[in-house]
């Protein structure tokens, strides 16, 4: 990291410029990265450098074509970041704060790539770590950590989103040592190419939600790519058909007995989406700030105008508030004290402030704000998906409201 000091007039803050990309001014105004151990800061810089070298040059083209850059998966192996928050089975064991900042860094370059990573690491690996048996962890986690296999997570259905805790229509029926799955899932990231798909289904015998690991080659498993998205276009979402898919008892997640177990996964991944939203806001801010410095009107950079500086200051305030909120939530997660309502507050607040921030960034660029060439348009569009998935703003708000009042407003 290099520093380039701005004018000392009026106590100006130092302008931080990443060594690997001198044009990208950092949005870490309160230096949250300094909270990490030196080795973790170095790891974060390594991840940042890899993203700038490999993801950033291709992302706008891939986003426009709605294609995923599969050739980049191999490079992730050397970064040692899959399942980084966990201990054992090949995971680095660095905890929630490091994992969150890595998610932030990935989304800061591209939210689609961060979503791909989050589905694999935050949902796939996390589900097996939290809900799998010891044998299942040993069987699956090392290959997932090494990116030899890719994971997906199938909960949402075509007609069931927010009501998944009670309204799942995908069923599981046991016949001896085999389970028969039937139903449909929708919006399943990575599902067009994932090797292992965690499928949540309601057991016909006891009406409880259980988890199953379905292999992509299973008969009756048919993923179909969802076309026509205007957000997170690089993510390969699929609608999945499950027609008499047979899953051995050995592939049923042995510690997933009800939706309570599903919810413990969602608690951690909801915070992950909050970090992704933060990274999205940072990326939009940095692109808009650089544009304001480069774009000249009336004989000077538009960054010299009061209204532009006001927008940048408000964007930076949103980002800094989200950073401090997410840092504290990650500390609570590391201590095993993060509650559902705390994770919901982080996700609700971060995605709302991100939506506001990327809109200001798009506005600051004027007509150029709708062109992929300047990156802001991509962040602006991608923020819409972050705002909705892993619990809408309204649902997360009601979870927080229930905690605040002791009264559930759920229908």
From TrEMBL:
The UniProt entry's sequence similarity note says: Belongs to the acyl-CoA dehydrogenase family.
InterPro entries, sorted: ACX4-like (IPR045008), Acyl-CoA_DH_CS (IPR006089), Acyl-CoA_Oxase/DH_mid-dom (IPR006091), Acyl-CoA_Oxase/DH_mid-dom_sf (IPR046373), AcylCo_DH-like_C (IPR036250), AcylCo_DH/oxidase_C (IPR009075), AcylCoA_DH/ox_N (IPR013786), AcylCoA_DH/ox_N_sf (IPR037069)
* UniProt xrefs under PROSITE patterns: ACYL_COA_DH_2
* Matches recorded under Gene3D superfamilies: Acyl-CoA dehydrogenase/oxidase, N-terminal domain, Butyryl-CoA Dehydrogenase, subunit A, domain 2, Butyryl-CoA Dehydrogenase, subunit A, domain 3
* Domain Acyl-CoA oxidase/dehydrogenase middle, residue spans: 152-245
UniProt KW keywords = FAD, Flavoprotein, Oxidoreductase
This chain is encoded by the gene named gcdH
Name used for this protein in its record: Glutaryl-CoA dehydrogenase
Q: Which SUPFAM superfamilies match?
A: Acyl-CoA dehydrogenase C-terminal domain-like, Acyl-CoA dehydrogenase NM domain-like
PANTHER family linked to this entry: ACYL-COA DEHYDROGENASE, ACYL-COENZYME A OXIDASE
Q: Which cofactor does it need?
A: FAD
Pfam families, alphabetized: Acyl-CoA_dh_1, Acyl-CoA_dh_M, Acyl-CoA_dh_N
Which parts of the sequence belong to the Acyl-CoA dehydrogenase/oxidase C-terminal domain? 263-404
Q: Where is the Acyl-CoA dehydrogenase/oxidase N-terminal domain?
A: 40-146
Q: Does the keyword rRNA-binding apply?
A: no
Native source species:
Streptomyces xanthochromogenes
Is Oxidoreductase one of the keywords UniProt gives this record?
yes
